[in-house]
Amino acid sequence: MKILKLTTIHLFVLLCFSCKKNVSENGISQSNRSSTDSTSTEMTNNLPYTSDRVQPYYTPDTDSVSYVVNTSYKGLQSDTFNEKDSSVPIKENDFEIAPDPKTKYYTLETFKFSDQNTAKLIIYNTFGENDTKILNVQLNSYFNNVLTDKLLLDCRFTFETEYFRTFSIGKDKSITIVKHSVDKLEYNEAGDIVGEKKQGDSAKVSVEYSIDATGKFIKK
To answer: What is the C-alpha separation between 115 and 153, in angstroms, rounded?
Structure first.
């Protein structure tokens, strides 16, 4: 009987020790998991960022020679513009892009330049002359969570001439935009289109910006 009692006590002690160890390990695991979760929700700067990284988010339109947002891209979520934000003009808006409040946009990246200044990279479609589809990539700047400025980084479409832009955003708040145009059409003396050139005439113009302490885009 004594041996049985001692064995029972021994097993009970081992069981308590094992439970205590598991609770301790689970506590550490839970603590680490919480730390990982909180870190994953923090805003991280994916910089430098270039226009090459936007390519998966748009695709050629089957009904035209333009591009449309690739809405089937995994994880891409939409939102709509609002009338309040429309009061902030878009800089480098050569073609007077003006999305209405019902226009959908998709957020690609969010950058944090300071505790007060963040920026959101968005993509959306609008329509130009003769219902030409225009693909736009835009950087919205916020100061203390209030929309402060807008900069059109890419605007690509084809209407007789092909237009598109390339850009880069640096860690030092510098932004470079290169505007490209390619004229592939052949004209006669009367100005009528008579065909396409084997090699289009290309032109490009570069502009540079920086972001100031208040979140404004400043042209250099």
So the answer is: 24
| Whole-number Cα distances in Å, 3 to 10, 11, 13, 17, 89 | 10, 12, 15, 21, 88
| pLDDT (tens digit per residue) in 103-118 | 999 999 999 999 999 9
Neighbour tally for 70: CB within 10 Å: 16
- β-sheet bridge partners, residue 212: none
Nearest 10 degrees: CA dihedral of 181, 184, 190, 194?
A: -160
Q: What confidence score (pLDDT) does residue 139 get? A: 98
Region at 144 (left for phi over 0; alpha for psi -120 to 50; beta for the rest): left
Mean of the per-residue pLDDT values of the chain: 81
Question: Using an 8 Å Cβ cutoff, are 88 and 148 in contact?
Answer: yes
Q: CA-CA distance, 120 to 109, in Å (whole number)?
A: 6
Residue 199 in this model has a pLDDT that exceeds 60: yes
Do 162 and 141 contact (CB within 8 A), yes or no? no
Amino acid code (one letter) for 39: T
CA-closest candidate to residue 66, choices 133, 131, 129: 133
- The burial of 161, by beta-carbon neighbours within 10 Å (0-12 exposed, 13-18 middle, 19 or more buried), is given as middle
Q: How far is residue 48's CA from residue 217's CA, in Å, rounded to a whole number?
A: 17
Q: What is the DSSP string of 73-129?
A: STT--EEE--TTGGGSPEET-TT-----TT-EEEEEEEEESSSSEEEEEEEEEEE-G
Give the model's pLDDT for residue 73. Answer: 92
Write the DSSP symbol of residue 213: T
